[in-house]
Structure to design on (263 residues):
């Protein structure tokens, strides 16, 4: 059993290295990784070596959107799990702090999150996680789709926070993978009108191709070149504080859309 890992040493410097195969501890499972997505955060660490106060100070394995198959189990885990295909929840909380004990383990300040300095991630052959953080995948779902469960959860949470219900009208700024997954969730929840914006028209075209059931409108905005909107949201003068400027320019000029669409 070999464990090869893609290790980031510095921006644009990733080396393939042999690492020891981790041993599953009590209530842990050993997973052979089969698919890993590349998140915008992975790209930031690769390009710049940091995201804000998270800085790569020592060699780091990136990747936190992953799926694989359980190949060994630690003490206290049923051996029947061996061979199970699973999606991995990549943020491992301490389980003891106030947030964890009040049921908000996603807010644990001591979380150990895959691929975030100094915690190694999933661009490696084998990882261990608590067995409750390895979610069984149905046979109908591919490994790649399993790796998309984590970013899907971001879109799902966004739609929950927005309290979407059937027949809602939705604006999604940024048509990257997370924006597209949010759009699919909004469709599944019955939203009848979904508008997407991005700084790159090709992303919007991809969103249309990937989701034929999306009949909504879209608009794109090129920073610094006002009025470059295609397929703009029709502006009703009374709704538009900018007079004759297409509403699209107003709504998709958000900084976050530009940043989200930058990779
Ligand atoms: Zn905690």
């Amino acid at each position: 059993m070999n464990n090869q890992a893609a290790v980031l040493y510095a921006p644009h410097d990733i080396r393939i290295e042999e690492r020891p195969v981790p041993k599953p501890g009590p209530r842990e499972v050993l997973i052979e990784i089969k698919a890993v997505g590349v998140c915008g955060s992975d790209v930031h660490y690769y390009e710049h070596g940091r995201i804000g106060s998270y800085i790569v100070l020592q060699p780091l394995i990136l990747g936190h959107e992953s799926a694989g198959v359980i190949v060994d189990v630690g003490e206290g885990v049923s051996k029947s799990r061996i061979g199970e295909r699973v999606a991995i929840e990549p943020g491992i909380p301490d389980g003891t702090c106030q947030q964890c004990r009040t049921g908000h383990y996603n807010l644990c300040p001591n979380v150990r999150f895959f691929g975030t300095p100094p915690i190694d991630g999933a661009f490696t052959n084998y990882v261990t996680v608590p067995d409750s953080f390895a979610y069984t995948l149905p046979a109908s779902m591919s490994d790649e789709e399993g790796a998309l469960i984590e970013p899907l959860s971001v879109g799902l949470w966004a739609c929950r926070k927005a309290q979407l219900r059937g027949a809602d009208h939705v604006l999604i700024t940024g048509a990257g993978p997370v924006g597209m997954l949010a759009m699919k969730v909004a469709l599944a929840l019955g939203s009848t009108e979904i508008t997407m914006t991005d700084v790159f028209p090709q992303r919007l075209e991809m969103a249309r191709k990937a989701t034929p059931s999306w009949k909504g409108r879209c608009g794109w905005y090129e920073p610094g070149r006002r009025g470059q909107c295609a397929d703009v949201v029709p502006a009703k003068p009374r709704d538009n504080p900018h007079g004759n400027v297409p509403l699209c320019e107003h709504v998709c000029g958000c900084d976050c859309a530009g940043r989200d669409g930058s990779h």
In short: Confidence is low (pLDDT under 50) at residues 226-263. Residues 93-94, 97, 99-100, 108, 110 surround zinc ion (CB under 6 Å). The domain at 152-260 is CATH 3.40.50 (Rossmann fold).
